[in-house]
Every structure is written in C-alpha cells, then in structure tokens.
Specification:
The complex is a heterodimer of chains A (301) and B (417). Chain A has 2 domains: 8-194 and 290-298, Rossmann fold (3-Layer(aba) Sandwich), CATH 3.40.50.620; 206-285, no CATH class. Chain A is 31% helix and 16% strand. Chain A has helices at 8-26, 38-51, 70-83, 92-97, 114-125, 191-201, 264-273, 291-298; strands at 30-33, 59-64, 87-91, 130-132, 149-152, 180-183, 212-219, 222-225, 238-245, 256-258. In chain A, the strands form 2 sheets. In chain A, strands 3-2-1-4-6-5 form a 6-stranded mixed beta sheet. A 4-stranded antiparallel beta sheet of chain A has the order 8-7-9-10, with no helix packed on it. In chain A, strand 7 (212-219) and strand 8 form a beta hairpin. Chain B is α+β, with helices and mostly antiparallel strands. In chain B, a hairpin with a 6-residue loop joins strand 22 and strand 23. The longest helix of chain B has 15 residues, at 155-169. Classes of the chains: A alpha/beta (301), B alpha+beta (417). At the A-B interface, helix 1, helix 2 and helix 6 of A face helix 2, helix 3, strand 2, strand 3 and helix 4 of B. Chain A: It comes from Lutibacter oceani. Chain A: Residues 277-301 are annotated as: Disordered. Chain A: One of its GO terms (biological process) is sulfate assimilation. Chain A: Residues 29-254 form the Phosphoadenosine phosphosulphate reductase domain.
Chain lengths: 301, 417
C-alpha cells in the first residue's frame, strides 16, 4: 500500500485542526467552551497544535454550575496557567443570586437547564461570536444532525430544520451582529476515538476518569457521587464503590460506572467492550426522548 | 490498537421504502455498534407504534419531527468501527425535494451505496442518486440489490437489474461500480455471507467496504496548499517566525521545493514544513501543516501555494455545475459571496447555460431558472481571480459555495467544470 495516506486518527486530527484554523480566520472573538471534560480537553489540545509555535489564540469559557467536582476546577486552573490562556467563567450561582434564573425544585432538581441562560449571558457579555465546543455527533441523536459550523440566532437558538448545507470543507461562518456560531471540531469523533487519541497523544485528563473509590448513591440506574449538593431521602443508601466517570458534568447528575480501569489503555479497552452509550449515565438526557434536542434548540451546548 | 487503520466515508441515498434505514440499522447492529440503551429506546418506540419486532430504521431518525413523520429530513451522520476500518455514514434522504441533502452527503464521500429494490429494479430514483454520485465524483459505487428474499433469491433477477444499471452508469463518469445481492431485513450479504445465494461469489457488503482501495483516490500529483491563516508567534523563541497554516488539498510538498504563491505569482523555496510534533521531510494531502518560505514575501489567507511547474488555472471566469439550495430562486445577474478553499470574493452569475433534468439526464435550455434543488451549468464572474482546478481532478480546489449576503445563507454549491 502507498505510504501517502493518513490513519483515521491522523485524518480526524487534521480535519479538527483545519476547522479550528477556519474559526480563527473567520471570527473576531472566538472562545473554547471548556467544561473540564475529556472532549473539551481534546479540543484545547488540538487548538494548541493548530497554532503552534504561536500560543493558543482562544480564551477558555467555563460555565460553572456551582455544583462542581473540585478536581475539575483544579484541572481547569492548571491547564489555563500552563497554556497562558485567558479564562472566562459564567456562574450559574450568580445568575440564581441575581434572580436571572430560578432553581428547580424537588428531588430530581438539576441546574442543567439553568446553564443555558448563563452560557448565553456569558456569550453576549463577552461579545463572543463563536463558541467552540467538544460536542460529537455520536453522542446523541439530535447531535447527529449538527453541522461543524452551527448557526445560532440573536436569541442563541438553534433551528435544526433550517440549517445551512455544509459541503466539502467549505464553512460558511457569515452572521449578523448579535448572532453567534457554535463550532464542533471533533464532530466526527466517537468516544472510542477520543480515548485512543488521549492515549496516543498522552493528554492529561482529570483523575475522575480513572477508577477510584468514592461514596455514591444508586439513582436513575447509575452511581451518583455523594456531595454537599446532593439531596437525599430516607430510601437513598450511601455506599462506597470503585467507580469511574465516562463523562464529567454537574456533580449532582453525573453518574459513574463500576470499573477497575485505572489507566488510559484500560479505559480504552473497557470503552471498546461497553454496551451502553456514555450519556446513558446522564440523568439530564433521560427526561424524554427529545430532551437534548429541546435544550439544544434553546441554546444548550 | 490498529492505529494505521483508514477512515472511509460513505453515503447512502434512498427513500423510506427501499430499506435504506434497515440496511444502516443492520450494519450497525451486526457490527455491534448499537448500544443497549439505544436499542432499548428503539424497542420501546417500536412497541408503542405497534411494529412487529424491533424497527432498526428508527435508529437513524434524529429529530423529533423525523420520528413523528417517519421520514428523514436532514443528513445524519453515523459512525462504526470494525477491526479493519473506521466508517462514517452520511445518511441522506432520497426524496426529490431533498436533492440538496444528497449532494451534501455525497460531497465528502469516498463511496456511495445505491439501493435498488429487487422487486422494482432500476427506477427514477436510482437514476437520480446515480447522477448525483457521478456529479459529485464519488470514486466507488456499490449497488446493493436489496430485498432479494422477496424475489426468492433469484440469480436471473439480479443479473437483469445489473444489466439495466450498467446501461445508465455507462452514460456517466463512474469509475468503479460493484453489485451485491442483499437482504437488509434478513441480513443476507450485509455483514455475513448469505446461505441463500450460492450463485453469488463476491464478498458481503461490509467486507467490500473494509477492503475498498481508497488511498489511490487522493490526487498526489498536483501540489496545492490553500493558506488559511498566518502564524506569527512573536515570542522569544520564535521572534521572526512567519508560517502559513493550511491543509494540503492535494499532492506532496517537501522542503527545498520551488513554489509559487498565487495569485501574486511571487516565487520562493519551501524552508520548512512544521507541525506541533516536529518538522517534516515531506507532507501530503490531507495533512494540516505550517509551511515557511525562504523569502519574505507577502502571503495571506486566500492565497494558494503550488509548485512552479504545476499550477492551477488563475481566473475570474469560471464554468460551474451549480446545485441551488435555497427556497428563493436566484435572481438574474444576482451577486453573491463566493467561497472557494479559503478564498472569499464577490461573484456574479452571468449566465445559466442549461438546466439538467436529473431523471432523464437531458439538458433543458428553455427552463433555466435556478430554483430549489435545480442543477444547472452556469458561468460565474468573480471580482478577483480564483485559483481553480476542474472538480474531476481536484475536489478541494474544484468546489465552491455561494452565500447570499442579505441572509448569510449558503444558497448554492458548485463543481468547477
């Protein structure tokens, strides 16, 4: 076989770097939406590669629900320092304090929906015209319909039935004042690709992804970590389990899975054998069959 | 991990009834790419709707409206991996009103699956899909003659359809066509070899997808490097560094090569080809790299670096096969923004030469209106020159889109003739 071809990971990397450079060329004030999860870490790593030897030209924007894993915040701050990047934090707690949004009530209350307002406020306040995300099309059925360059109107809304056709590698980022774009450089990656890439590039990720012992409660078919933010009732039983997280989000809704995988290679093997999607452990996606689509229409990540 | 595995992008065009969704569902299911919770969700929906068994077609519907109406509205992308390759499926709706989605899905595909219902044979829709596949120059066409179980796995029926298809494909620019008799519903020749068709000596579909030779589809002759952005670190270690970032569209670049920057025509020599992981002795398509030059010349976004002895055409007048994507038809002599690689200019549609009837392949010189889903040969004039190649030799430097500046929508896509 000819030596002039790329492996699938090299091709995905090259595609993502191309997309990130298009963002830099087409927008005035782009940011990376940084959650501290593996996907946004990979996007940040790709941005570092895309502009080398110059430093990463994007600010990192974090929407902080106030319900954090402390490891995530520590990781975020270390990475920002290492990159010499600018950090923008949008705080859900502040939005609650200011009366911009109201906390959900009841046992299954989450701050998931509240992030939408905070995210859109942060985008508007900082005059962001492009927010780069780590969303992947394999994650969820509404996300399978996303473009690389996804238009948001002046209210931050997504109109999935009226998307711009996207052909070859030509991206149309034209927009009017007040509108913005969401751009997803790793659209074509799967969870497996992300893990293989993390292994190949030796990318640092938060310790939460590796198997560790933790106090957890069995809720909605997954192990929810015990924390000061978790509302328990008399039926909930706190247990100590060896778990790891497949995704990282708000600590009150991110479920862990029982696992012994304590290295990236072991995780990759485990993921390859996995029979459930990673968002299967996210209670936010279980509310209805179209909960992701509904949130995305409003402006969610 | 088999990290030298390649990526194959393929498209499937088809309608609700020809079993396209079932085929994709089957590929994903038999290659163990459907997860339990996804299967549970589909099972629940199938039951609620009173379907018998699990309707694998439900797996491909992403938006609420699609699930409710049972139709695919938009391109959806699906992923699966086998020990041999990673696959990206662009799943596109096949109705005539969705030509734009078929074109979109086809634009990045290495291969296309064309489904034919064994009971109905070659129909208008087959011709339409084949035309688009040839227009978009998809290198490999796999004709799957589906629902063989409903024609008693009959070899003669298969041969009849193959002959009928050869007749239409002979009129088009299709390089590589293969035929496979399948039953997506029963699983014959999709992932596993059929026990019902001993007369078929070829490989099942998945095996064909795994072994298609795609490395040679990339143009390695014409070196083209559209500049996306200029890298100027201005830090202590790289004080005078000035690099041109981009993704190689085609061909091979090496340090020491004499190059020309277009449209200016300035010449220089490649000093280095840099990446985060180190400098390279050669780089080829589709690698994303940074090129530095020996001379300090003016290069910016939209420029194209080529080899001195092999240059693209530099022109303000281009002939294009244009697909119109917008509900509002083009106005006569309307002006648009044209995007070609990283180059953006203003453009005027000077003339519509003819419209193609995608069912009969005839040229219409009476009705030449650029309406939604129309495919027309047009003449375009740009304000500044573009560095172009024919689409048939170069998908990247041979393609354009038009953007309406009053709405910012992408209204058309074109292949340079």
């Amino acid at each position: 076989m000819s030596k002039y071809y790329l492996s699938y990971l090299e091709e995905l990397e090259s595609e993502a770097i191309f997309v990130l450079r298009e963002v830099w060329a087409q927008f005035q004030n782009p940011v990376i939406l940084f959650s501290g999860g593996k996907d946004s870490i990979v996007v940040t790593h790709l941005a570092k590669k895309a502009f080398y030897p110059a430093k990463i030209p994007f600010s990192l924007m974090h929407v902080d629900t106030g319900h954090n894993f402390s490891e995530t915040i520590q990781f975020r701050d270390n990475l920002v320092a290492e990159l010499g990047a600018n950090l923008i934090v949008g705080s859900v707690q502040e939005a609650i304090n200011d009366g911009r949004v109201a906390e959900e009530k009841g046992k299954n209350a989450t701050r998931n929906e509240l992030q939408i307002t905070t995210l859109l406020d942060a985008i508007e306040d900082n005059k962001v015209d492009c927010a780069i995300g780590g969303g992947r099309r394999d994650e969820e059925k509404a996300r399978a319909k996303e473009r690389f360059f996804s238009h948001r109107d002046e209210f931050g809304q997504w109109d999935p039935k009226n998307q711009r056709p996207e052909l070859w590698n030509i991206f149309n980022g034209s927009h009017f004042q007040g509108e913005h774009f969401r751009v997803f450089p790793i659209s074509n990656w799967t969870e497996m690709d992300v893990w293989n890439y993390i292994a190949k590039e030796n990318i640092k990720i938060p310790s939460l992804y590796f198997a560790h012992e933790r106090e957890v409660v069995w809720k909605n078919d997954s192990w929810i970590p015990n924390s000061e933010f978790l509302i328990l009732d008399e039926n909930d039983k706190i247990e100590v389990k060896k778990i790891r997280f497949r995704t990282l989000g708000d600590i009150t809704i991110t479920g862990g899975i029982e696992s012994d995988a304590d290295t990236v290679d072991k995780i990759a093997l485990e993921v390859a054998a996995m029979r459930k999607t990673e968002r299967g452990n996210r209670t936010d996606d279980k509310r209805s069959e179209s909960s992701m689509e509904d949130r995305k229409r409003q402006g969610y990540f | 991990m088999l990290d030298k595995n390649q990526l194959l992008r393929f498209t499937t065009a088809g309608s609700v009834d020809d079993g396209k969704s079932t085929l994709i569902g089957r590929l994903l299911y038999d290659s163990k790419s459907i997860f339990e919770d996804q299967l549970d969700a589909i099972e629940a929906t199938s039951k609620r709707r009173g379907h018998e068994g699990v309707d694998l077609a439900l797996f491909t519907d992403g938006l609420r409206d699609e699930r409710e109406q049972g139709i695919t509205i938009d391109v959806a992308y699906r992923y699966f991996t086998t020990p041999k390759r990673k696959f990206i499926i662009a799943d596109t709706p096949g109705h005539i009103q969705y030509t734009r989605n078929m074109v979109t899905g086809a634009s990045t595909a290495n291969a296309a699956i064309i489904l034919i219902d064994a009971r109905h044979g070659v129909i208008e829709q087959t011709k339409r899909h084949s035309f688009i596949a040839s227009l978009l120059q998809i290198p490999h066409i796999i004709v799957c003659i589906n629902k063989m179980d409903l024609v008693d796995y009959n070899e003669e029926r298969f041969n009849e359809i193959m002959t009928a298809y050869e007749e239409i494909s002979s009129k088009m620019l299709i390089k590589d066509v293969r035929y496979i008799p399948i039953s997506a519903l029963k699983g014959d020749n999709v992932v596993n070899r059929s026990q019902n068709m001993d007369w078929y000596s070829g490989a099942p579909l998945l095996n064909v997808l795994e072994t298609l030779h795609i490395s040679s589809d990339i143009n390695k002759i014409d070196a083209r490097f559209p500049v996306q952005t200029v890298i100027r670190p201005q830090n202590d270690t790289h004080r005078d560094y000035r690099g041109y970032a981009g993704r190689i569209a085609s061909g091979i670049f090496k340090p020491g090569q004499e190059i020309v920057v277009l449209p200016s025509g300035f010449t220089s020599v490649i000093k280095s080809i840099d990446t985060f992981s180190g400098s390279l002795q050669e780089a080829f398509a589709p690698m994303s790299v940074v090129i530095t030059l020996e001379d300090d010349i003016d290069v910016s976004r939209g420029d194209l670096i080529a080899k001195k002895n092999n240059m693209p055409q530099v022109s303000q007048d281009i002939d294009v096969m244009l697909c119109w994507f917008n509900n509002s038809p083009a106005k006569p002599r309307a002006k648009y923004k044209i995007q070609h690689t990283s180059n953006e200019q203003k453009a005027l549609i000077k003339e519509v030469v003819y419209k193609v009837n995608i069912d009969t392949y005839e040229r219409d010189i009476e009705d030449k209106e650029l309406t939604m889903n129309a495919i027309c040969r047009v003449k375009i004039r740009t304000t500044k020159p573009l560095m172009i190649d024919a689409y048939r030799t170069n998908r990247t430097t041979g393609s354009i889109i038009l953007v309406d500046e009053t709405t910012n929508e992408t209204v058309a896509a074109g292949m340079i003739v």
